[in-house]
């Protein structure tokens, strides 16, 4: 990025603080209506994010961050992602994520058996988050 070509500034924050800050050539997020790729000079956008990975490409490198919901605001080559929670690929504890996945699957079974729709909904979100963390960690 030393060749003075336009770059993106990307920041991911959670209620616990800043999780990620970097410059990149290309940003990929999953919005409520589908995937969105952002290059420098993209039009401004505000979007709700799904539980999925965020990818930041810079040169030949790529960072992956597990983002668990939130929203993104992009303007003037700056993307700010405000997420419920987020973890960089290198910081994901796969064993903990696997345990969370197993707990969520068991809770889903119990909630379906007892027709507990509130517990079922919470467990399904927990399952999506655990699977997202596992997928990001295994790339």
UniProtKB/TrEMBL annotation:
Domain ATP synthase F1 complex delta/epsilon subunit N-terminal residue range list: 8-86
Chain ranges of the ATP synthase epsilon subunit C-terminal domain: 91-137
NCBIfam families attached to this UniProt entry: ATP_synt_epsi (TIGR01216), PRK00571.1-3 (NF001846)
Keyword ATP-binding included in the entry's annotation: no
Annotated compartments: Cell membrane
Gene: atpC
Summary of the function given for this chain in its UniProt record: Produces ATP from ADP in the presence of a proton gradient across the membrane.
Species lineage: Bacteria, Bacillati, Bacillota, Bacilli, Lactobacillales
UniProt keyword terms in alphabetical order: ATP synthesis, Cell membrane, CF(1), Coiled coil, Hydrogen ion transport, Ion transport, Membrane, Transport
Name of the protein described by the UniProt record: ATP synthase epsilon chain
């Amino acid at each position: 990025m030393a060749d003075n070509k336009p770059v993106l500034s990307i920041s991911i924050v959670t209620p616990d603080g800043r999780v990620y800050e970097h410059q990149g050539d290309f940003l990929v997020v999953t919005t409520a209506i589908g995937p969105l790729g952002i290059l420098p000079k993209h039009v401004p956008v505000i979007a709700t994010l799904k539980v999925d990975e965020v990818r930041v490409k810079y040169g030949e490198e790529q960072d992956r961050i597990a983002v668990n919901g939130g929203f993104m605001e992009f303007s003037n080559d700056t993307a700010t992602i405000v997420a419920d929670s987020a973890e960089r690929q290198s910081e994901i504890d796969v064993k903990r994520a696997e345990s969370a996945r197993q707990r969520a699957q068991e809770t889903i079974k119990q909630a379906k058996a007892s027709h507990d729709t509130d517990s079922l909904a919470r467990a399904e979100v927990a399952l999506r988050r655990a699977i997202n963390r596992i997928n990001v960690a295994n790339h």
